[in-house]
Amino acid sequence: MALANQPSTVFTAMNMGVIMLGALVGLAVFNEKLSTLNKVGLFLALAAIVVITYASY
Q: Is this prediction's pTM over 0.90?
């Protein structure tokens, strides 16, 4: 409800969150290995979520 006036922010953060959660589940449950490029991508996705959320305030 806090971001009800900004659905694009919620949609973007949720999509990136799903990607990050999928990668973490793959790491924890399936013992997958993350390459350096994948780690950089996950970090950038997290940074993007933070920036998008901060910009909405």
A: no
